[in-house]
Amino acid sequence: MSGCVFRGIVAERIDSTKVIEGDSTLAFMDIGQVNPGQVLVVVKPHVESIYSVDDALAGAAFQTAASTHAIARLADTFMYRLFSPIAC
């Protein structure tokens, strides 16, 4: 887990350009963008697998994605991805 890039970004040990930060999620600009304006959405708590994510955390991730989508529309881009740092 110590070498996980996403954990480093959430803990602010690695710089990122934050788009939205909530209590349990973080959306930030992807440094390896395939498309302009690509945003990554991650959950803050480390989970062992996607099957470990409870309804509240999954809901928070999708709520953040929806908010990110609204911001992306203003910037005329629609790219975002949901990540759960698994096996980091």
Describe the protein in words.
- The chain has 88 residues and is an alpha+beta fold.
- It has one domain: HIT family, subunit A (2-Layer Sandwich), CATH 3.30.428.
- The protein has helices at 5-10, 55-74, and strands at 18-21, 25-29, 39-43, 80-83.
- It has a four-stranded mixed sheet, with helices on one face.
- It is globular and about 35 Å long.
From the spread of the alpha carbons, the general shape counts as: globular
Number of discrete helical segments: 2
Radius of gyration: 12 Å
Instruction: Note the quaternary state here.
Output: single chain
Biggest sheet character: 4 strands, mixed
What's the CATH C level? Alpha Beta
Structural class: alpha+beta
Please render the helix and strand layout as text.
Blueprint: H1 5-10, E1 18-21, E2 25-29, E3 39-43, H2 55-74, E4 80-83
Parallel strand pairs: 3-4
Antiparallel strand pairs: 1-2, 2-3
What key attributes describe this structure?
single chain, about 90 residues, about 20% strand
Short description:
The chain is α+β, with helices and mostly antiparallel strands and 88 residues long. The chain contains two helices and four strands; from the N terminus they run H-E-E-E-H-E.
